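Researcher: Next sequence.
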Amino acid sequence: PMRHQHTKPSVRSVRGLTFIELLFVTSLFASTSAVILQSSIYMSSWWETATSQTDVRIVTQLAMETMTQELRQATRTATETPPNLVVVGPDQIQFYLPRDQDGNGTIIDANGETEWDLVTPIEYRYTPGQRRLSRFVGGVEQILASGVTAVAFADQTTDSSLYDDELSIQLTIERVTPHQQRTSATSRAIVATLSS
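Model: Next structure:
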């Protein structure tokens, strides 16, 4: 007859994991968690930067579109009649817009001439200390953009590559994300004003 040998259960099966195995599993879990956390922080920072960059581009483009649409109605003529757009300085311009003065519902008078609002000049002004570009009409300020780091208005007197009726505008806006990443956008436009 064969005898059955009874084996004693191993220490391992009775006690579970050894201390070394527990340390290994814990360090593996900690390392994996650190990698996941670092990836999450990186992705969060990347997302904030990408979102901020998109926002800055949109704000820059909207401010430029607002200015260029309005400036296309201003004038730059040799006779200075109608009133000319004036580049007051590299960060400030002043101009007038056509306006129905005789109440006929159009900006053209009975003689076929454009009517101008000579009482209320419009001014675009950059305030570096406040980092904003504003539009002033009759002393009332409308902020076109904040976070502005640079604005440059130029005409033929400061940029010989421009024609008499052209104005160059350059606008730079910058933002800082919560993770201290700087994003900026610069836009430049050359506006052809009326030369009537």
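Model: The chain has a mean pLDDT of 87. Residues 19-71 form the longest helix (53 residues).
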